[in-house]
Amino acid sequence: MAEGPLLVMWKEDIQPFIGKQITAIENNTKLHADRMLGKTITDIKTWGKHFLICFGDFTLRIHFLMFGDLYINRRKPPEKPVKLSLQFTDSELVFYNCALRFIEEPLNEVYDWSADVMSEEWNPRAAIKKLKAIPDAVVCDALLNQEIFSGIGNIIKNEVLFRVKVQPLSLVGKLPAKKWNEILKELLTYSYQFLEWRKKGEFQRHWQANARKLCPRDEVPFVKAYLGQNPRRTYYCTQCQVLYN
């Protein structure tokens, strides 16, 4: 899944498209995409896992789901179906395996920017307040709650919980405040490390828990399980990660 840091990287990559006018569109969705024809991109934003292409009076929202992708000035092999292509005089943005819709309202009325871990407006205190309202939730669900931690996905969840030594089935309300502060700090740190590693093409090399078989601290097998209300693949160590319940 495209997590928040990857979308931030893509946002940086397509900054040169701001100010460009769309000259042609290839659309394989039910979206009335022709309304973008002749329009000029005014801004590129992200909110967590939402990629936002702004056109002044409306915004195209792209959600990359589990296997979505963005290609810039190139395409996947022909057997990979294009979802949407925005074409310009000398360039192209191609979207694959994603969900698209238009947002008509001003984005500040739609999004709580303080929930986006990689936003300049990220507010850890607001996150703590929201966590206090769900004391009986398990931590692995809380970290994937996009209203609290926009942009955090399954990989970041697994890696951060391993770093801070917390088992994913710990209860939100049982973690001491000091441990939550550690988690929030690590979420921010890891998200920016994720961004830098993706830019260098070495992201998976740095995984310590996600998709790994052995705990690098204790050299015992990781537990692999599908946990949470919407079960997601989770890796954790029963020796060094503490269960708070």
UniProtKB/TrEMBL annotation:
Domain of life per record:
Bacteria
Q: Which reaction does it catalyse?
A: Hydrolysis of DNA containing ring-opened 7-methylguanine residues, releasing 2,6-diamino-4-hydroxy-5-(N-methyl)formamidopyrimidine
Q: Name one GO molecular function term.
A: damaged DNA binding
One Pfam family hit: Fapy_DNA_glyco
Q: Where is the Formamidopyrimidine-DNA glycosylase catalytic domain?
A: 2-103
The record, for InterPro entries, names:
FPG_cat, FPG_N, H2TH_FPG, Ribosomal_uS13-like_H2TH
The biological process GO terms on file are:
base-excision repair
Cite the Gene3D superfamilies for this sequence. Answer: 1.10.8.50, MutM-like, N-terminal
What keywords tag this UniProt record? DNA damage, DNA repair, DNA-binding, Endonuclease, Glycosidase, Hydrolase, Lyase, Multifunctional enzyme, Nuclease
Family, similarity comment: Belongs to the FPG family.
Protein name in UniProt: Endonuclease
Species, as recorded: Ilyomonas limi
